Amino acid sequence: MQVIVTKSYDESCQVVAQMFCELIRQKPDCKLGLATGGTPVPMYKKLIEANKAGEVDFSRVRTVNLDEYCGIPATHPQSYRYFMDENLFDHVNIDKANTYVANGLGDAAANAAALEQKVREGGAADLQLLGIGNNGHIAFNEAGDALVAEAHIEQLTESTINANARFFASREEVPTSAITMGMADILAAKKIVLMANGPAKADAIRGLIGDGRITTQNPSTLLKLHPDVVVVIEEELAKAAGWQG
Fold it and tell me: Per-residue pLDDT tens for 135-146?
């Protein structure tokens, strides 16, 4: 596992955006695993800037998103399809037919199976982007006694619901379940890059980069099993997490 410590979160976003741009230039029809949430938004803005400047071409890129809330339509402002359109897809020259975000409505089990099929379609992701929850959850794979390998429906923990409540008008509006890639789906990617910032993530990051232990109580620690993981954090978070370098 490679840990890159930057001077600021803006620099972290630049580092990760550069990884994406280099991959797309090398493999124009690459398959990307994408993430939502507040963490990647500034990085997506840098990808948009690079595309508008003619530095990177998304026309043949394929994408699959990690997860989607159950019970809200793609047109809902807090759906992850809406998020991706607003924060990336509507602003670059990507073919939306080549982008996939799970369906949050209808038969949840069938929608999870469809996500699993997309994860496998055309082979593993060339690059999987991840954020990390305060409790170490990856996508919506929540901390607990056991984790699920394949795409599935996850009941969200109180801490995750509370963390996501800031995006909704009220806590009561936050969905209590989501469709998510499983841990084996994530670990199947050829390369993984995890971005994190802010002191609230310190405990989770400490578990990920601090030692060799793996526990389902911090799902991110399973990334230690992968041969090519890059963790990008700024100095403040590295210090809070006790990273010695």
Answer: 899 999 999 999
